[in-house]
Model the fold of this input.
Amino acid sequence: MTASKSCPKAEDVTFRESSMRRILAVIALTSTLACGEEPPDLNGDGAGDAEGTVTQIGLVHPQGTIAGHVYNAATGENLTGITVTIISGGAAPQEVESTDGVFRSGALPAGGSGHLIISSSNFITAQRNFSLPGAAGDFPTANAHAWVGEIGLLPKAPGELVVLGPDAAGVGSVTVGVDFGFAYLLDGNPAKSLRLTGTTDSQGVAGINGGMPDLNALSPLLQSMAGSVTVSLGASETTEGGSL
Done:
């Protein structure tokens, strides 16, 4: 008895080939996905991390600002045309100008100290230090801000200090020192002391470094604060020196 051998029909062969193509296509797609770009390692554990699965925290550099008010110590009026130089940390100095006496700095390094130089035409320049809190940038604390106070500048005298000899002629080469009771007002109180020096020219005019305070304008303020002014003269060929 001879066994019969059946052959696959044409449609069966076509179906199998089509199925195989689909399987190969799925394998190829799976391989493509599996071999795609590895996600970045966001937490340093050596494995890739999907987007949104790791919260990254970086270092911050806290910053803050300062502000203050500058006025005429003799009259109490706001000063116009002031320039405030701010030196703080390793940052470059800032220059802030104000037309109404109120000034505010730009961003400054927080958590340290700084130095202010406050100047205005026809007024004695004032200098003072300040501190800026270090909590700036720490959640949920807002950036730091420091108020450096109400600062009263001393007006300069409109004239010159002249040293005269016994014959009423100007005496040259005399060292002049002026000790004023305070350098400026801070929140209504005397701050620091003021020492000014200069040397007279051939006409007896003393070139006081920084300018001479206007004693007439400041007299009421000096009396109310029991302040004093001392002018000292060094010896010369025609004078013995002394103080007033």
